[in-house]
Structures are given as structure tokens and as C-alpha cells.
Amino acid sequence: MKVLNQQGLPDALVKAVTFRQRKPGRLSATTMLKGTKSVLLEDRHWDNLEVDVEDQLFALFGKAIHHLLEDEGENDFTEEFMSYEMDGVTVTGIIDNYNMKTGVITDWKTVKAFKIVLGKYDDWWKQGMIYAWLLKKNGFEAKTCQFIALLKDHSKQQARRNSSYPKSALVVHKFDVTDAGLEEIEKFIKSKIAEYKQNKDLLDDEIPPCTPEERWDKPTTFAVMKPGNKRATKVCDSNEEAEKIAADLGKGAFVETRLGESIRCADYCSCCEYCNFYRDNVATVEAQETAAA
Q1: Which has the closest alpha carbon to 6: 46, 51, 45?
Q2: Which of 72, 116, 121, 168 is deepest in the core (most CB within 10 A)?
Q3: Average pLDDT, whole number, for the chain?
Q4: 100 CB contacts (<8 Å, ≥6 apart)?
Q5: Domain residue ranges of the chain, discontinuous segments joined by +
Q6: CA–CA separation, 126 and 244 (whole Å)
Q7: Alpha helices in the chain (DSSP H)
Q8: From CA 270, how far away is CA 51, in angstroms rounded?
Q9: 182-192 pLDDT, tens per residue?
Q10: 23-41: per-residue pLDDT in tens?
Q11: Contacts of 280 (CB under 8 A, 6+ apart)
């Protein structure tokens, strides 16, 4: 992967955001949270992928936080690489911190406040449970996972005005490691390994697209609007429902279509230019919107 430096920033920044290619035949805890198509395309086209330094500054912020917090306690190990081979694929993970006395896994995150407002932590649960699974396979017991989130854009004003907004710029999300959870995550790991092996020899365009969840899809919705109002009276999943409500309201009420989008594809996928789903769907829609503007 080539790191561009279009603003001529210091070399230290370029080095700090330079990535290493994943070794073939390995799937990491974070890699398994991506779509298989994304993983395979990134592997195949790694040498031709390009990112700019300025687009990786948030990743640099996260890396700096990890570096500052990497000192080990008496019963801890930090930034520890764990691996276990299953069905011919090596599952890996680098655990931020694990306390051998308490059995607590700690992972540091730098996120936007919106992540906390949404309250969707399925990705953190999977990542933490994969770490717990790896620890167990290597002879260690994990009892609890905690994700400590540092909010990059926390607003004290929003915290005062909005009851659902996080009150602090530091949020801790915890969950227990259970036998049922370990069984569930092993099924997930096996399914990701199976997907990887089934698709690794297919041509780029033959690999099934990432799932809506993996693409961070935001569906198209239909907003019922009243003339002069900036906020919708109601947002519906179907145009038919929205049109009926608008008709019942009368007085010039109308329906505004809010097009959905695949957020990861559009803004966070490094290999999207090699993906036919992106070309046929995301890029095409963006081009149409630009032409209509």
C-alpha cells in the first residue's frame, strides 16, 4: 500500500500511518469484522492501493493512544500477539491489555460520540470474544471484556442539552465472557474461515459482495414533510406508507426521499476501486447525485 503525502507533511507522519500487509492464510480479530470480499481484494491489490496521510490522521490518533497506554502492570501483558490455527487458517489477534489475575481484557478505542449515541456494540462484542477465544486456546482464562472509548469529538454543550448524549469524553463498555458466548464466537470464526476458503480462488467480480451489515448500510427512507418545516413529521421505511401519511395530513404535505448509502464502501474501504459492487452501486449513485446537483 502506497502512502501519499500530497500536502508535504513530515516524514514521521508518513511512517506512522504506513501499514504492513497481512500474511496470507491469516485472519485477525479485526479482519473478521470486515466482509470477505474486502479482505480478499485488499490482499490481492495491496501493492496498488493508495491512501493519503491526511486521511489516516484519526488512525494515527488511535495509534498514539495505544502507545501511551502500553505500560504493563504487575499482572498484565499488553500488545500481546495471540494465534491459533483452525481449518488450515491462522486466527490472530493483538490484545491491548490482559490482566492475568482478574481475567479482564481491555481494548482502547478512539471513536466519535455518534458511536456511543447509537449504542451498537456488536462489533466490539465480536472482537472482544475473539480475543477471549484466542486466550482460552492458548491456556488463559478471560472473564470480562472492557472497551474504553475516548471520544474524539465530545461536546460538553451536547452533553448538557441531550439526555442520550454521552456525559463524558471517556466511556467504558463492559460485558462478561460466557461459555455460550465462546461457543457462539467459535461458530462465527468457523463461518468466516469457510467464506474465506470458498472465495479465495474466485475472480474479483465473482466474490459475493460484503453484507449490508459489513458495508454499514444506511437504508433509503421516506420523510413526510410539511411546508416550511425543516424536520420530518415522520420517517418511513416505504414510500407507500409515507405517501399515505402525507395524504392524510393534507395542506401541502409531501414525501422527501432520503437515499440510503453504504457508508464503509463510500468512505472507509481501501480497495473499493477494485470492487464491482462499489462500481455498480455506490459510485454510480454518487455520479448521478453529482450530475443532478
Answers
A1: 51
A2: 116
A3: 90
A4: 75, 76, 77, 140
A5: 14-206, 217-292
A6: 41
A7: 11-16, 36-44, 57-68, 113-118, 122-137, 156-161, 179-199, 239-249, 263, 276-277, 283-292
A8: 7
A9: 999 999 999 99
A10: 888 999 999 999 999 999 9
A11: none
Note whether 53 and 5 are within 8 A (CB): yes
The CATH T-level fold of domain 14-206 is Lambda Exonuclease; Chain A (3.90.320)
Distance CA 224, CA 243 (A): 8
* CB-CB contact of 222 with 246 (8 Å): no
Residue 175's CB is within 10 A of a number of other CB atoms, namely 15
Phi-psi map region of 250: left, alpha, beta (phi>0 left; psi -120 to 50 alpha)? left
What is this structure's pTM? 0.87
* Amino acid at site 11: D
The C-alpha cell 474501504 sits at 269
Q: Closest Cα to residue 266, out of 220, 218, 221, 205?
A: 218
Structure-block grid coordinates of residue 52: 493519503
Look-up: residue for cell 498514539?
64
Helix, strand or coil, per DSSP, at residue 104: strand
